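worker-03 picked up job from queue 'complexes'. Input manifest follows; five sequence lines, order preserved.
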Amino acid sequence: MVRTRLYRDGVLVSEGFPVAEVSDHVSDPGNVVWFDLCAPTAADLESVAEELGLHTLAVEDVFQEHQRPKVDVYDSHLFITSYWLHLEDGRLHSVEVDAFATRNALVTVRESEHFDIGKVTARWDAAGALAKNGVSFLLHGLLDYVVDAHFELVEHFDEQVEKLEEQLFEERPMTREDARRMFTLRKNMAGLRKVAAPMREVVNTLFRRDQLLATPEMAPYYQDLYDHVLRVAEWTENLRELMSNLRETHMSQQGFRLNEIMKKLTSWAAIIAVPTMITGYYGQNVPYPGFGSGSGFWSSTIIIVIASGVLYVAFKKRGWL
Amino acid sequence: MVRTRLYRDGVLVSEGFPVAEVSDHVSDPGNVVWFDLCAPTAADLESVAEELGLHTLAVEDVFQEHQRPKVDVYDSHLFITSYWLHLEDGRLHSVEVDAFATRNALVTVRESEHFDIGKVTARWDAAGALAKNGVSFLLHGLLDYVVDAHFELVEHFDEQVEKLEEQLFEERPMTREDARRMFTLRKNMAGLRKVAAPMREVVNTLFRRDQLLATPEMAPYYQDLYDHVLRVAEWTENLRELMSNLRETHMSQQGFRLNEIMKKLTSWAAIIAVPTMITGYYGQNVPYPGFGSGSGFWSSTIIIVIASGVLYVAFKKRGWL
Amino acid sequence: MVRTRLYRDGVLVSEGFPVAEVSDHVSDPGNVVWFDLCAPTAADLESVAEELGLHTLAVEDVFQEHQRPKVDVYDSHLFITSYWLHLEDGRLHSVEVDAFATRNALVTVRESEHFDIGKVTARWDAAGALAKNGVSFLLHGLLDYVVDAHFELVEHFDEQVEKLEEQLFEERPMTREDARRMFTLRKNMAGLRKVAAPMREVVNTLFRRDQLLATPEMAPYYQDLYDHVLRVAEWTENLRELMSNLRETHMSQQGFRLNEIMKKLTSWAAIIAVPTMITGYYGQNVPYPGFGSGSGFWSSTIIIVIASGVLYVAFKKRGWL
Amino acid sequence: MVRTRLYRDGVLVSEGFPVAEVSDHVSDPGNVVWFDLCAPTAADLESVAEELGLHTLAVEDVFQEHQRPKVDVYDSHLFITSYWLHLEDGRLHSVEVDAFATRNALVTVRESEHFDIGKVTARWDAAGALAKNGVSFLLHGLLDYVVDAHFELVEHFDEQVEKLEEQLFEERPMTREDARRMFTLRKNMAGLRKVAAPMREVVNTLFRRDQLLATPEMAPYYQDLYDHVLRVAEWTENLRELMSNLRETHMSQQGFRLNEIMKKLTSWAAIIAVPTMITGYYGQNVPYPGFGSGSGFWSSTIIIVIASGVLYVAFKKRGWL
Amino acid sequence: MVRTRLYRDGVLVSEGFPVAEVSDHVSDPGNVVWFDLCAPTAADLESVAEELGLHTLAVEDVFQEHQRPKVDVYDSHLFITSYWLHLEDGRLHSVEVDAFATRNALVTVRESEHFDIGKVTARWDAAGALAKNGVSFLLHGLLDYVVDAHFELVEHFDEQVEKLEEQLFEERPMTREDARRMFTLRKNMAGLRKVAAPMREVVNTLFRRDQLLATPEMAPYYQDLYDHVLRVAEWTENLRELMSNLRETHMSQQGFRLNEIMKKLTSWAAIIAVPTMITGYYGQNVPYPGFGSGSGFWSSTIIIVIASGVLYVAFKKRGWL
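worker-03 finished. Artifact:
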C-alpha cells in the first residue's frame, strides 16, 4: 500500500494515492499532504527534495549514520531526526525516523520496516478532531509514537531492575548469566539515554521557538509530549541510581561471601590439621608414653576426639561454621 | 461522608452536600467550591471535566500511570500532580494526588483511600483566617500536607542512617539482614527523590509565575512551602552523602576483616604445620639420632613445644593473633 | 545580665535595660535597638512579634526543627536562620541562631547558651566606627561570628586530614579506631556542608537584593563576609577531594597488604609442606633405598635441608618473603 | 607544490602561485586568497603577519605548545586553533592546525605534514558551488575535515569497546594485554575529549557571534558542523558510560572468579586432607583396631574411599567443584 | 635593592628610588608608580594605605591566612589576591602575592622572597612597548607570571602521570614508594586546583567588568591570560581523568595479581599435598599390598611421580602455573 494522505480543512480527503500526485496537491496551501518513504534511495529523496524545496544538507543527513536526535530549522522547512527503539533477543535496536516538515507537507523517512508507520496513522485517525492543525498535528502524532516507545522501554527496564533486586538476597550466588544480564541491562539503558536525552531539546525547539508550525490548539499537546520526554529522562536517571545500589550491594555481598568462605576454610582446615598433627605424634618411632600399647591407642583416640570437638564447638560459637 | 465544601468570603458555608449541587455553586464567582474524588471512574471525571471546562489532556493524565509531579497550566485552570508517600513493612508506597484548580473551584483526585483527605480538611480548618484567599489557600493546604509526608520520610531515613552508623563499628560483622536493610533504605531514598525533586518546580511555578491563583497574603506561605521542599531535597542529598560514607567505610571494614582472618589463618596454620613436620621427621623409618630411644621422645617433644611456643609468641607480637 | 542595647547616631547609648523598655525605644526611628532571646518560650516570642509586627510564619519557624539557613523577606522585616557549629568529643553540634531584622531593631534568638552572644557584642564594640550603619552593622557582626565558626571548623578538619595522611604510609595497618576517626571526620564534613553551603545564598540575598538594610558603607563588609563563605565552601570541597584520595589510597594499601600476606602465606606453607612430604616418604613401611639404615637418615636430612633452603632463597629472591 | 589559491567571484582563478604574489592579490577586496604554511619558521610567519596585519599574540600562539582549541577575535582577523587527531600503533597523536582568517584571506598553519592539506582542498573543490562565500566557505571546509577526524576516532573507539564487551564473558580471564588495551583506550578517549570538547565553543563562536565571516548561505553548514561536534561529544560521553559498565562488570567478574577459586581450593584441600588424616591414624605406632592385620588395611582403605567420595559429592552438590 | 619604579608616558623614568618618594610621584596623574613590599609589617602597610587611600578591609586581607584568589573592587582601587606555586622536595608550596591597583599606582605585596619579583620586572622590560598602558600593563605582567607558574606545574604533573603510566604494566608490583608518589601527586593536583580554579573569575573580572584599568590595547593580552587560565583548568581536569584511569587500572591489576597468586598457591599446594597423602598411605602400620616389600616401594614411588606429573601438566595447561 502506498503511504500517502491528503487532508483539507482537517478532513482526510484522500489516502493511498501515488506519490507522483503529491506535487499537484502540495501547491495548494489549503491542502495538507503526508507521504512516507521507507529506506528510500538517494534518487527517491532527490526528487522529493526538489519538489518541496528541501535543503541539500537535510537530505544528506538522512543517509549519514550515527546521527543524534535533532531539529534543523531551515527557512521554509524543518528537518527532524529521531530514533525509535525496540528490543530483539534482549539487545536494543534503533530505527532512524526522519521527517521533513513544510508549512503544508510532512514527509516521514523510515530506515526500515521495523518501524510500523501504520501505528502512527492509527493515532492520527484516533485524534481526528485535531487534524485541522495540519502538519503540527501530524508531526505530534509521529513524535508521540516514538517517545512512547522510549517510555515502554523504561518500563521494561524497571521490571528487569526489580527482578534483579529480588535475586540479590537469594542464597545462591550470582552466576555468570546474571552478570551478563546486568551488564546488558546497563548497556541498553545507556543506549536509550543516548537517543532519549536529546529529545528534550527536539520537542522544546518545536513547541517553543518555532513559528512555522505553531498553532495554539496544539500547544498543550506538545507540552504533554515534552512532559513524557522528561519522564523518560527522570525515570532512566532513577533506574541508574537503583542499578548503582544493586551493583554496589552485589559487590559488598561478594566480599561478604569471600569472608564467609575464608572462615569456613580456616575452621575446617584446623579441625582436620589438629588430628593429623596428633596422629603424627603417635606415629613417631620413639618410645613416647603409650608407644605400642593399648594406653597409647586410647590416649591418641581420646585426644583426637576432644581436640576436634573443642575446635568445632569454638568455631560454631564464633559463627565461623 | 461526601467530601464537598462551599466557602463564601472566607467562611465555610456548607459542607458534605452532594456533588450534584456543585454546578449551582460554582457558577457564582463569589463562591469557592471544593470537592474530592477518590479513585474515580473515567465517567465520574468526564462529567466533572465538562462542568468545569477542564482540558481533555489533564483528565487523561489522571489515569496515566508513572506520571511525575508537575503543574500543567491551561487557559482557565491548572492541573497539579503530586505524590504522597508512606512506608508499609519497610517498603515505600506512593499515592497519586491530583488537583484541578480553577479560579473558584478545587477538585482533588486521590488514587486511593491511603491518602487521608480528612487530614487536609483539618489543616484548612486550623488556618481558617486565611480561607478568604480561596483556591490558593486550599491548594496550599493540600500541597503542604503532601510535602510534610516527604519531610517525615526524610526524618525517618535520617534515623535509620543513624542506626546503621551505630552498628558500623560493632564487633560482629554485618549480616545479610543488615545488607538488605541498607539496600532497601537506599532504594527508598531514591524513590523519595523521584517524587520530591520535581516538587521544587511545582511549587515554584505556582508561587512565581501564576496569575490565576496569586494573592499577596498567600505569597509567604507558598515561599515557606518552597522552603520545605528545598529542605527535603538538601537533606536527602546530605543523607546520600552519609550513606556513601557508610557504604565505603563498610567496604573498607570488610577488607580489614579479610586481612585479619588471613593473618589468623596463616598464624594457626604455621603453629599446627611445624609440629606436624617434626613428628613426620621422627616418624621416618631411618635411624635418626634418638630412633627408638627415650632421648628421641624427649628431643621430639621439646622441639615441638619450643617451635610452637616461639611461633605463638612471634605472631602475638606482630598482632597477627 | 539582660542582653539589650540602644544605639543612637552610631553611639551605644544604653545597655542592659529591661526588655520591657524596648517598645519605647523602637518607636523612634532614630534609635537602633537590639535584644537577645535565648531559648525563648512561644509566649516570649509572641509578645515580641506583636511589638515589632513580625509575620506569624517567621515566628513559627523559630520553633520548627530541621530548618536550613535562609533569609525570608517580609514587607517590614527579614527573618534570618543560621547555624553556629562546635565540636564536642569529636561530634559536631549545631546551635540554631535566628534573627529578626526590622529597619531599626535586631532580635537575635539563640537555641541555647552554647552560642556565646557575648562574643558578638565584643565584635560590635571592636568595630565601633561602623555602628552608625545600624541594623545592617549589627547583623553583619552576628553573621560574621557564625561564619567564622564554620571557618575554624574547616581549619580543624584540614589538620585532621593532614594527620590521617601522615598515618597512611606508616608500617602498622589502620586500626578500627583509625577507621572510626576517618568515618566521623567525613560525617562531620557533611554536617558542616549542610549548614555552610546555604549561607552563600543567605549572604548574597542580604548584600545584593535587599533595600531594607542596605548602606553603601557596609557593602564591602558584606562582600568580605561573602568571600569568607565562599572560602569555607571551596576549602570543604578541597578537603573532600583529599579525603577521597586518602580513602582510595587506603583501599589500595589494603589490597597491597592482602597480596603481601598471601605471598608470605604461600611461601612459608611451601617451606613447611615440602619437608613434611619428604619425611612422609621416609616414613613409609616399604624398603625404599636407605630404609632402616644410616644412609636413609642422611639422605632424608640432606634432602630436607636442601629443599627448604632452595625454596627460602627462591622466595626471598622474588620478594615474597 | 606550493599551496596557494586565488578565488574571484567564487571561481578558482589561480593555484600554486608563489607566496610572494599573495600580497598583490590580497589588496583587492574582490579576491579571496588562501595559502598554507607547514611547520613555518618564526621568520616565515613574521612576514605573513606584517602583510596581513596579524596581531603579535596570535602569531606567538602558533609556536606555543599545549594550546587548546579556540577562536581569538581580533579587530581585523580571527585566529583559530584546532587539533587534528590520528592513531599510530594504538597511540593517539595530535597535529595542531591553526588558521588566520581575514575578510578575504585564509592562512592555514599545520604543525606537520601528518595533516594532509590535500584532503581539505579536495573538499573545497567538491563543494565548488559554495565557493562564492569566500573565507567563510574555506574555513568551513578546514574545520569540517578536522571534526570528521574526531568523528572517525569515536567510531573506532566504539568498535574497540564492542570488542572488549564481547571478550568480557568469555571463559578465559583477562590477560595483562587486555588490561593494557583497556587502559590505552580510556587514555585515548580522554585525549580525544581534551581537544574535541572545546570545539563546541569554537564552532559556536564562529557561526553565532562573528560578523566578520557571516554569510547567510553558509549558516546551515556551520550549524551542521556544530551538530557534528555535538555528536562527537555525546558519543564520547556514551562510550565513557559503556566503559564504566565494562570496567565495573570486569571488577565484579574478578571478584566472582576469586570466590570460585577459593571454593575449589577449599574443596580439594578437604578431599586431600581427610585421607591424609586417616592414613596418619593408621600410621600410629599404637595397637589400634586392625593394627598390623588385614582388617586394618581394609578398614583404612574403605574409610578413605568413602570419606573422599562423600566430600566430593557434597562439594559437587553445593556447586563448589 | 629597593623595588620601586616610575613610568611617565610609557617610559621608565626612574627606578630604585626610596619608597618615601612615592607620595610625591603618585600625586601627579601623569605618573605611573610601582613599588613592592615583601613580607611587610602591619605598620608598613598602614602607611601605604593612608598614602594611596586603600580600604581597611583590603589591608586586613593581606594578613589573613587561607585566602582564596580574588579581586575586590573598591571605589578608587582594586585588591587582587593570587597564589604563586612551587614544588620543594615534591611538596607543593604556595606564596601569596597580593596587589593594590589604583589608577596610577601598583603595589605588589609578596608573602616571602620565594616569589622572585625580579622575574616580573624582567617581563615588564621585555614588553616595553605596552608600558604606556600603565597599571593595566604592570598588573598583566604580574598575573601572567603567576599563571605561568601554574602552567609549568601542570606540565610537570603531566610528566609524572606519564611516568606512572609507564610503570603500570611492568612486571614488578607497585611498591609502597610508588603508592606514596601517586598519593602525593594527586594531593598536589588538588592543591593546584584550589588556587588555579578561582583565577578564572579573577582574570574575567579584570578584563570584562572593570573600567578602572581598561585600555583597549591591553584587552587581547588579558584575553590571552584568560586563555592560559582555562588551559590550566582543562588540563588539570584531563589529568584527573588520567589519574582515575591509572588508579582503577592499578586496582584491577592488584585483583588480577591476587587471583594469580591464589591459583599458584592452589596448584602447588595440590602438587605437594597429593604425594604427602600417598606416603601417608604407605606409612600405615597395616599390611597393604606391598607392605614391607620392594613392590610397595616401587608402586608408591611410581604413583607419587605420576600424580605429581599429572597435576603439574594439568595446572600448566589451565594456565594456573
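worker-03 released lock.
The first strand of chain D starts at residue 4 and ends at 8.
The longest helix of chain D spans residues 219-282.
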